[in-house]
Amino acid sequence: MYNLPNILTISRIVVIPVIFLAIYIHTTLWSILAGVLFVVASITDYLDGYLARARNQHSVLGRLLDPIADKLLVVSALLIIVANGMVEPISYIPVIIIMCREVLVSGLREFLAEFRVGMPVTRLAKWKTGFQMVAISMILLEKLYIIGEYVGFLGEWMLWIAGILTFVTGYQYFEKCLDYIYTVENNKKNPVKVVEQEVKKIAVKVKTAVSEKVKNTAQKKRGPKPGTKRNGMAPVKRGRKPKNKSVTTAE
């Protein structure tokens, strides 16, 4: 449980209060420090998944904390940006969209978990997270010497792109949840469909069991394959029997 991917995930949560202090400490150095810490935390979001796959260190704790750490990090950084007035008021729109989407998706996952229905992360959702973290990093680093102003301006534009992607992915998840609700409600209104689905599930299970039984019976009838050991003895070599050759004697 305490492997390197999980430690990196937990570090993203631990660093949030340090970044959050940027609201109260209004200095250029601290603002840059907050931006650098956010960049490092964003990189760990990629590293923990990569290391978990490379080392085969997947864990239940990692699956639980990874999305929570991402949401806490992004929402906290957005609060810092808004509180310090680091973007134009019109750019509060994508900020609100991002925060509302995170609450919506968390609620949908909690609802579907009661019915044991998963909501896997889509490829577009991963791109959304990437745009969010890059945009927030650029905005937090807007006080860098010389290039800070341009970086912050570009980051604000990327924040709008992230807001659009966030809205699209949120709508996709909401649509999937509605499809599931419609399916459940239609099955309740038509009990025949419920019985039909249950019969199909039972038929599939019976078919699988019969196939396995037939396969095992056929294998027993054929016996062990040639070349396999039987009772610890050496494998029996099967080949053609030598033909009886007539022996001629010299007269």
Order of helices and strands: HHHHHHHH
CATH fold-level topology: Four Helix Bundle (Hemerythrin (Met), subunit A)
Which CATH class applies here? Mainly Alpha
Helix and strand content put the structural class at: mainly alpha
Number of domains: 1
Word description of this protein:
The protein is mainly α and 251 residues long. It has one domain: Four Helix Bundle (Hemerythrin (Met), subunit A), CATH 1.20.120. It is built from eight helices and no strands. The longest helix is centred in the last third of the chain and has 42 residues, at 148-189. It starts with a helix and ends in a 29-residue tail after the last helix. The model is unreliable at 245-251 (pLDDT under 50).
What features would you highlight for this structure?
single chain, 251 residues, mainly alpha, Four Helix Bundle (Hemerythrin (Met), subunit A), 8 helices, disordered C terminus
What can be said about this structure in brief?
With 251 residues, this protein is an all-alpha fold. Helices cover 72% and strands 0% of the residues.
Describe how the helices and strands are arranged:
Elements: H1 4-14, H2 16-20, H3 28-54, H4 60-83, H5 92-113, H6 123-140, H7 148-189, H8 191-222
Helix pairs in contact: 1-3, 1-4, 3-4, 3-6, 4-5, 4-6, 5-7, 6-7
